[in-house]
Specification:
Blueprint (H helix, E strand, L loop, with lengths): L15 H7 L46 H23 L4 H14 L1 H16 L9
This protein binds zinc ion.
The site of zinc ion (ZN) has 9 residues, from loops.
């Protein structure tokens, strides 16, 4: 099933990466996973919808389900930190003071996005895309 205007986007509609990157329901990929589209909205950084407004898939899992998202967030944080360190020190040749400032700012600004990605990855591990859910 092709939806108008979505076929040229990357990641492709219907893939798990689409759901993860765009914060969409893993089942129908149309409903929102998070209450607010803005990950920096105070109080709603990782607030999730209880169920999909399109296909009614339940996003609430057993107690502690989303704490497992730490295991998907931790490796991403390490990888991103390494990339920033290489970028700032080897590519941009920043002084240690500038490196410390930029690196600290980077690591302060990224956690809301990383936590959201971790939750989306975790949910996508257990819910598969079903193109027939919104027919
Ligand atoms: Zn849905």
């Amino acid at each position: 099933m092709k939806l108008k205007g979505r076929s040229r986007r990357y990641p492709a509609y219907g893939s798990k990466m689409y759901s993860i990157v765009h914060g969409k329901c893993p089942r129908c990929q149309q409903g929102e996973l998070f209450v607010s589209a803005n990950p920096y909205k105070v109080g709603q950084m990782i607030a999730m919808c209880s169920r999909c407004e399109v296909c009614k898939t339940d996003f609430t899992r057993e107690t502690g389900f989303y704490s497992v998202a730490l295991w998907t967030s931790y490796p991403k944080t390490i990888l991103i930190a390494l990339i920033f360190m290489l970028l700032y020190l080897l590519v941009l040749h920043l002084s240690m003071l500038l490196f410390f400032i930029f690196f600290s700012l980077s690591m302060l600004l990224l956690p809301p996005i990383i936590m959201r990605l971790g939750r989306a990855i975790l949910l996508n591990m257990f819910i598969d895309f079903d193109p027939n859910t919104h027919k």
